[in-house]
């Protein structure tokens, strides 16, 4: 029997939603303040996934200007109906709910169709057998995280809400907090409403109710919650299970994709909320969900592996690979792959990581507890300028490993307060930078000649990159960065930093 390893999509990929079209499966996840928004993945066996691109990849689709850390795009849902893909989501800052459509999940996707859903979030779509379309969403009721799930009809021609509103459920537990992540399904003639409860930390859970009619009334499963790891404690290797979606294979098997977290170095979550997979079966008309394990029997589908992505990006393609992100929506082209062919060129600009701006940063997710990153940098810093590698949780919690006029520096920023933990002089010209993480120990090193590696300072404690310390819902990013110095110091606006290649390798532990 084949087995698979969880998570199936490692690193910061929370709130997964999935749909099947024939023998193909498509999955999207939240992206928060990172751009492009809503990564979209493709699989044929539910285990091996490749990224097709992003749903929201144009500024006209996604304005993240000034968005706070862990703001932005929450909880997308993807569905397919009559040859069209639909993605519905919330831009939380301002509570803007909208739908985009495409005939190919790789894009292009339409500009947003806004929906009149004030105070609502985590919307989802359901297409009934009679051709009717419905939107579920969640909204707060009072204070302290109490809420309710409600339903409205959707006219697919005008892409507007129609008909009366129906309140469906307030959750399984008395005074259940954060009833959210609602999805509707129709199974054997009954309607099932599945939601998340308890918030996205250790008390996260999945609950379900059912009804004979789409508009209700809905009755909760007496065995709720159908999935939670809250009883296993913070030291369990997989915690915070929840925010799930269901999919049925062609031969009738059911599977659940969900978010969960892998703590390490104590109760710390540098990797953020990741996408996991677990089997589902039905008993007495209710879904029974298996506990989420690091390994398990693979779905009874033909194995379909995609070609492995290169560990090293030589920046010789015409566009950045799908793994690369920007912090908030870029309004100007601060990067180039053509000005110096075979290099990623970043413009030195005044915007920095320390503010809610769009700095000159091209970054990718940390996807392994233990990893190594290397890059080649060609940069001559001017007054107040820097360029190099950064490890980012948000504007107040990050590590900068950068070349400045003063030398090569390691700057640790925690809670908005900065400390230069290392500074070493280096000769001018090309330099290779490296970061190796073993658990929460992040070591920096450099080489000015091939193979002549030198340590740069003492290891840095990586726990500041954990949401346990920094707060929020995202995971750590690693990337290439250039700036005109600290916030407010400006820059000459004409300098550039060239990165010849970037390599990311997960390490066994």
What does this structure look like?
With 509 residues, this protein is an all-beta fold. The chain folds into 2 domains: 3-297, Glycosyl hydrolase domain, family 43 (Tachylectin-2, Chain A); 312-506, Sandwich (Jelly Rolls). Helices cover 1% and strands 49% of the residues. The chain contains 1 helix and 40 strands. The strands form 9 sheets. Strands 25, 27, 28, 30, 35, 36, 37, 38 and 40 form a 9-stranded antiparallel sheet that branches. The chain is globular. The two termini are 26 Å apart. 48% of the residues are buried. The model is unreliable at 486-492 (pLDDT under 50).
Q: Report how far the terminal alpha carbons are from each other.
A: 26 Å
The helix/strand class is mainly beta
What is the strand content? Answer: over 45%
- Please give the radius of gyration in angstroms: 23 Å
CATH topology of the largest domain: Tachylectin-2, Chain A
Described by strand count, sense and barrel closure, the largest sheet is:
9 strands, antiparallel
Number of strands: 40
**Which runs of at least 5 residues are low in confidence (pLDDT < 50)?**
486-492
Question: What global shape is seen?
Answer: globular
| Fourth-level CATH superfamily of the largest domain | Glycosyl hydrolase domain, family 43
Helix content: under 10%
Averaged pLDDT: 96
CATH level-1 class of the largest domain:
Mainly Beta
Question: Can you count the helices?
Answer: 1
In total, the number of domains comes to 2
Which architecture of the largest domain would the CATH scheme give at its second level?
Answer: 5 Propeller
Keywords: Glycosidase, Hydrolase
Region (Disordered): 215-234
GO molecular function, one term: hydrolase activity, hydrolyzing O-glycosyl compounds
Site (Important for catalytic activity, responsible for pKa modulation of the active site Glu and correct orientation of both the proton donor and substrate): 122
């Amino acid at each position: 029997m084949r087995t698979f390893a969880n998570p199936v999509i490692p690193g910061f990929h929370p709130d997964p939603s999935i749909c099947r079209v024939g023998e193909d499966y498509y999955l999207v996840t939240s992206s928060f303040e990172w751009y492009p928004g809503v990564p979209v993945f493709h699989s044929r066996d539910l285990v091996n996934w490749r990224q097709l691109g992003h749903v929201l990849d144009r500024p006209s689709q996604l304005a993240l200007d000034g968005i706070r850390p862990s703001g932005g795009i929450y909880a997308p849902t993807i569905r397919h109906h009559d040859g069209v893909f639909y993605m519905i989501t919330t831009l939380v800052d301002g509570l803007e709910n909208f739908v985009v459509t495409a005939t190919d999940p790789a894009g292009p996707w339409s500009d947003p169709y806004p929906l009149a859903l004030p105070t609502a979030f985590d919307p989802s779509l359901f297409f009934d057998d009679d051709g009717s379309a419905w939107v579920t969403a969640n909204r707060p009721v009072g204070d302290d995280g109490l809420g309710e799930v409600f339903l409205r009809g959707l006219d697919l021609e005008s892409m507007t809400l129609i008909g009366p509103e129906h309140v469906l459920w307030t959750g399984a537990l008395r005074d259940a907090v954060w009833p959210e992540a609602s999805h509707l399904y129709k199974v054997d003639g009954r309607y099932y409403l599945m939601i998340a409860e308890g918030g996205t930390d250790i008390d996260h859970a999945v609950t379900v109710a059912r009804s004979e009619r789409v508009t209700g009334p809905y009755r909760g499963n007496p065995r709720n919650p159908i999935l939670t790891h809250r009883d296993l404690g913070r030291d369990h290797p997989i915690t915070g299970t929840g925010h799930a979606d269901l999919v049925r294979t062609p031969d009738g098997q059911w599977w659940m994709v969900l978010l969960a977290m892998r703590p390490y170095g104590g109760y710390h979550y540098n990797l953020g909320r990741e996408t996991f997979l677990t089997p589902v079966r039905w008993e007495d008309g209710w879904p029974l969900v298996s506990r989420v394990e690091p390994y398990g029997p693979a779905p009874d589908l033909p194995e379909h592996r995609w070609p492995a992505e290169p560990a090293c990006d030589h920046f010789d393609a015409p566009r950045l690979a799908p793994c690369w992100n920007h912090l908030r929506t870029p309004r100007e082209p601060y990067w180039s792959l053509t000005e110096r062919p075979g290099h990623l060129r970043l413009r030195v600009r005044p915007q920095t990581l320390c503010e809610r701006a769009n700095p000159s940063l091209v970054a990718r997710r940390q996807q392994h507890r233990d990893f190594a990153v290397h890059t080649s940098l060609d940069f001559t810093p001017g007054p107040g300028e820097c360029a190099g590698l950064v490890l980012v949780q948000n504007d107040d919690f990050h590590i900068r490993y950068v070349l400045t006029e003063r030398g090569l520096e390691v700057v640790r920023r925690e809670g908005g307060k900065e400390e230069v933990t290392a500074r070493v002089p280096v000769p001018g010209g090309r330099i290779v930078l490296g970061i190796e993480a073993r658990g929460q120990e992040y070591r920096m090193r450099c080489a000015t000649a091939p193979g002549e590696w030198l340590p740069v300072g003492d290891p840095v404690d990586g726990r500041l990159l954990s949401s346990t310390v920094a707060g929020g819902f995202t995971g750590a990013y690693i990337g290439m960065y250039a700036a005109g110095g600290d916030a407010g110091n400006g820059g000459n606006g004409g300098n550039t930093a060239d990165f010849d290649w970037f390599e990311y390798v997960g390490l066994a532990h």
